Amino acid sequence: MRHRVLVVLAAVVIGSALAAASASAQLPVIYNGALGYSHASPTATPPGANNFSCKPSAAHPRPVILVHGTFADMSDSWQALSPLLANDGYCVFALNYGSYDGSGAVGVYATGDIAQSAAELSTFVDRVLAATGASKVDLVGHSQGGMMPRYYLKFLGGAAKVNTLVGLAPSNHGTTLEGLFTLAGYFPGASALTGTVCPACEQQDAGSPFLTSLNAGGDTVPGVNYTVIESANDEVVTPYTSAFLSGPNVTNILLQQQCALDQGEHLSMPYDHIADADVLSALDPAHPVRLACTPVLPVVGG
User: Fold this and answer.
1) pLDDT in tens, 164-217
2) Which residues form the domain of 223?
3) CATH number, domain containing residue 127
4) Is residue 5 situated within a structural domain?
5) Are 72 and 63 in contact (CB under 8 A)?
6) Of 143, 85, 155, 88, whose CA–CA distance to 118 is shortest?
């Protein structure tokens, strides 16, 4: 009897140790834009991303690729969503794209021609699919990173390789130059790039030839699910309603309609716990995440 009790106690101790080890393996999720954007880097990978030996599970069969926005990089954009997704069991990947005239050397990306950036995304998607064995990926992008993939879907054959595109404050129908100058002010060195050395800035101006071509014939392509998550306080994509899409398989979410305490804006979007919960629900709609309506601050998030 005593031996049996010892065996049971040993099993409990081992089980507790394994549970503790599993808990300790969880990556920290930084819901703080001030800390997140301090990780700016020309080369660093966000926590939990770019493990090319990762194999998707039955629960999450599609790898998730994170696509940063104008002037940003994959490290400073995804200190929350990358570890959050990895902790949830996803294979997570991220890339830097759109370096122009050497801007990437100082960690300022997504300033180059958007069509070329979409080609870079196409190459990266193919690399992820080859490594993981998956048939499709899901894309999550912030700002330009939520709009640029639509060029890939429409013109570069991406619709056959993407199941879901989630945009966080995407510049789908452009913005004003004032909005782009506002964005540049948040990133050291970016203000000097908003003129002729930032083709992507001119292409995101509302009514530009690039956006006219992108949106001609409808906002969406068949076979892809779209979710747009936006804030009424967006000071970069203006008016904020220009982020939203029209068409089949589209879900447009305004954060303030979900929670009046969410006062986040454009920059805080990747570090907004409510927006990030919406991302999880968009990627796995069969298992929606229950939202916690607690305060979110401009820029900082929370």
Assistant:
1) 999 999 999 998 766 665 665 555 555 445 555 799 999 999 999 999 999 999
2) 28-283
3) 3.40.50.1820
4) no
5) no
6) 155
